[in-house]
Amino acid sequence: MLKIIAPLGGWCAPLEEVPDPVFAGRMLGDGLAIDPTGGIVSAPCDGEVVTLPASAHAVSIRSPQGIDVLIHIGIDTVQLAGRGFEARVKAGDRVKAGDELIRFDLDTVARGAKSLMSAIVVTSEGVTLQKRRAAGAVGAGDLLFEVVVDTPRQAAPLSAPAADAAAGECQRTVMVTLRQGLHARPAALLARRAKSCGAQISLAAHGRTADARSVVAIMALGVRQGDELLVRAVGHEAAQAVAGAMDALEEAQRMETAHESVPAPEPRLADRVQRPGELAGVCAVPGFALGRAARIERREIEVTEQGLGGEHERTELDRARANVRLRLERVRNAGGAARHEIIAAHLEFLDDPTLNEAAHEFISAGKSAAYAWRSAIRRSIAALESLGDSRLRERADDLLDVEAHVLLALAGEARPMHLPLPEQAVLVADDLLPSELTALDGRRLVAIALSGGGATSHVAILAAAMEIPMLIGVGAALRDVADGQTLIIDADQGKVHFAPTAEELAKARSTVDARLARRAALRAAAAKECHSLDGTRIEIFANLGSVTDAMAAVAGGAEGCGLLRTEFLFLDRETAPTEEEQLQAYQSIANALGGRPLILRMMDVGGDKPLRYLPLPEEANPALGLRGVRTALLHPSLMRTQLRAALRVQPFGVVRLLIPMVTDRWEILAVRAVIDELAGELKLEGRVALGAMIETPGAALTAAVLIHAVDFLSVGSNDLTQYTLAMDRGHSELARRTDALHPAVLQLIASAGTAGDAAGKLVAVCGGVAADHTAVPILLGLGIRELSVVPAAIPQLKRQIGRLRIEECRELARRCLSLGSANEVRSLVEKAVGDEGDQR
Ligand code: PEP
Ligand code: MG
Q: Which residues form the catalytic set?
């Protein structure tokens, strides 16, 4: 038993009264709070000072039994960066109960902090607190509580991550730019990150707080586009945890951008004036189709309320969830990127802590696993519906989908993976769940019409990805449509024709044929090599992060991969990928590309892309520290493993290597030397092509020299813009101004383009600016001959380039270089060539 005495005098209160969910929710452990009346913090027990950060706003002591006690002075005091605090001991010092640890100036801290309420928390696990002091006045040195260890344990530290808790506290506020706010997919990405890091991450918005591990809790924050979101991490590697959450938001943004070029499921209200034989609905996916009604009815799965005992029901629920998980994981990669992401979100729901805790509460109250799971899901749906945000309400479908999967698994049935459909089927239903759509044969399905439904629901996103016209909100009258009845679905006009005349049918047939021919022509055009109007060859490649992306990219007309962000393949791991694992990943992407070039970028880790299995030192300015090739050269064995895997991809020659974050020639030569050595070991015949990324101003300005050490250059405009304009690429306030069309960035791209021209070597752009239609003529004018973009942008990009003349682009670029801001560049281009965006 360990006695903990008050480290401060003041007013003792339960932890719930601390205005911080991390402490109030006992995420760091159990304890008490003190609202202090003095500025001296003394040791709560005998022990060793384990952590005392430079900001001296917190301290943790490890008792001789190995129990860790954290004292956190005030709330948000880490932001004071030490102002008002003075450490009287240092990490490693041995102290006696009552010894002075920290002094602080009550006034300074009170002015700078959100609250003075200080938490005294036992961060070790496997302990129980007893003889807890009641709320009221407390003097320094009075008994606060006693700690009893639950199970006998050795004197070793009880919980390693908790030892860092005081040192780790980090928060960041971002403006959410996602068009649909924090809906299920971004929430799932955030939750996945939060579960995989050592720190406790919480999110706060609109005065509500959510545990970032729970998708349901994140969605219940009701965060919309433009809202501020506070991301806060406490504990082990808190800064990395916050950076990870930011990455997840960025990734969600990238996914959203990728989806934007897929027919956007923007709801369009139909003209509600109907003619006889017509029903009106809302267009969720545009298009036109002719087919026969195929009804699917969903049956409510029956559940018994009473359980057969807590242990039995909990085991049943775990077993059912495990079965569903296995099944979903098996089908996750069987479709395109949209399906992959939606199933990933469903997997997160399956393991959601809020849902599972609620289900366990119902089981403890005597209910069956099925009843408990359904009740937990319905409770979350009610919470989403109460937010009054239609987009979040639509996420209820996903929850219902996961509910049905688990209930069927509990009943010993699997969800059928393939539902029969007649040819030319128009699916007619009240509602449709994502898994119901993916279970249908997309080749037989020509359209969907729903009585209810949501325009931004996942099922609409899936239908858009499958290019199936979809109408929603047709109303109860749709129920009168009989199975097999001939239907014309004019989703563009929001109309269902259920009693077409012979003349209308003939017209519909010719409309369908004409549309099919047009679509085939667009596909064929995108599949062709890209040339400008005057015949200059411009390669249009895709930026990839997975094999699913690769398949979608090729189908959409990608001529190769201009940037494989290899770090994405191996982010969520505890250990470094082996050579064989990497080879398998690269080979499957090369196979999906079917012999097209694969530009494989060496892992770009460090800075904003931390890896758990590669601990890097804390840096004051990570963006200016160990990143890209700098990290690779510091960890030669990691680099050699990756390069060996890349060099073994068959057939030899499809892989070209790309070095990230190059600053000078020495870095290129160092990598080249390793490649040559490995090529010798592997007895390779040819020489692998090697490129350097131009993403630092230093590399851009010396491009004419660097180019002689490589075979090609590729401009990373995202980083080049950040480093040229001295604006963090992830800074929400500066987002509008971090514009690659700033003439300073254009001058640096011009330097690379000119170097390429002079040396007769290719210069590409693989940063985000390559997909910006305003930038495209300038980039071609600056000598760029390869653009690598998100796969969805490819057809539009090819069409735009086919209408440009290089000589005119040169003249335009020349004029842009002499301007004074990105805005001036944008207006000049838009005046000169019109807004290509209008033609989308
Ligand atoms: C870039 O910086 O433009 C780039 C393509 O690399 P990343 O976005 O992966 O840093
Ligand atoms: Mg970069």
A: 458, 766
pLDDT tens digit string along 584-621?
A: 999 999 999 999 999 999 998 876 666 767 777 778 88
Which of 254 and 144 is assigned the larger pLDDT? 144
Query: Does any ligand 1 atom lie closer than 6 A to the CB of residue 627?
Result: no
Average pLDDT score, the chain? 85
Instruction: Give the tokens for residue 138.
Output: 């407390």
> What is the pTM (predicted TM-score) of this model?
0.51
Does the beta carbon of 389 sit less than 6 angstroms from any atom of ligand 1? no
Tens of pLDDT, residues 442-467:
788 999 999 887 665 677 877 877 78
Per-residue pLDDT at 573:
65
Mean pLDDT of 724-751: 87
Cα separation, 229 vs 203, in Å, equals 7
H-assigned helices in 96-177:
106-112, 160-163
pLDDT at 834: 65
For residue 545, report the distance from its CA to the centre of ligand 2, in Å: 14
| Helix extents (H) in 261-395 | 310-332, 337-350, 353-364, 369-385, 390-394
> Which has the minimum average pLDDT: 28-32, 338-342, 622-626, 712-716?
338-342
First-to-last CA distance in the chain?
71
**Rounded Cα gap, residues 496 and 341, in angstroms:** 31
Instruction: Work out the pLDDT band at 260, boundaries 50, 70, 90.
Output: very low
State whether residue 40 is helix, strand or coil.
strand
Note the helical H segments in 67-177.
106-112, 160-163
| Helix axis angle, 337-350 to 547-555, nearest 10° | 150
767 CA from centroid of ligand 1 (Å): 5
- The CA distance from 639 to 342, in Å, is 34
Q: Is the pLDDT of residue 259 over 60?
A: no
Going by C-alpha positions, the residue among 184, 235, 183, 19 that lies closest to residue 116 is 19
Q: Is residue 143 over pLDDT 50?
A: yes
Rounded CA Rg of the chain: 30
Contact indicator for 399, 381 with CB cutoff of 8 Å = yes
Res. 262 pLDDT band, cuts 50 70 90: very low
| DSSP code for 204 | E
State whether the beta carbon of 695 lies less than 6 angstroms from ligand 1. Answer: yes
| Ion ligand 2: residues, Cβ under 5 Å | 695, 716, 719
Q: Which long-range contacts (CB under 8 A, 24 or more apart) does 413-422 make?
A: 414/323, 414/327, 415/327, 415/439, 417/331, 419/296, 421/294, 421/445, 422/292, 422/294, 422/484
Spell out the long-range contacts of 312-319 with Cβ–Cβ below 8 A and sequence spacing 24 or more: 313/363, 313/367, 313/368, 313/369, 313/372, 314/360, 314/363, 314/369, 316/369, 316/410, 317/359, 317/363, 317/369, 317/372, 317/373, 317/406, 317/410, 319/409
Q: Quickly list DSSP for 479-543.
A: GGSPTT-EEEEETTTTEEESS--HHHHHHHHHHHHHHHHHHHHHHHHHHSPPB-TT--B-EEEEE
Of 120-129, 317-326, 682-691, 749-758, the one with minimum mean pLDDT is 120-129
- Please report which helix (H) or strand (E) contains residue 807, including its range: helix 806-817
- Those residues whose C-beta lies under 8 Å from the C-beta of residue 499, and which sit 6 or more positions away, are 276, 277
* Nearest alpha carbon to residue 328 among 349, 314, 313, 299: 349
Q: Are 574 and 612 in contact (CB under 8 A)?
A: yes
How much distance in Å is there from the Cα of 175 to the middle of ligand 1?
21
The residue with tokens 């069927």 is 408
Indicate if ligand 1 lies below 6 Å from the C-beta of 742: no
Pairing relationship of beta strands 30-36 and 118-122 according to DSSP bridges: antiparallel
**Closest listed residue to residue 199, CA positions, set 27, 337, 359:** 27
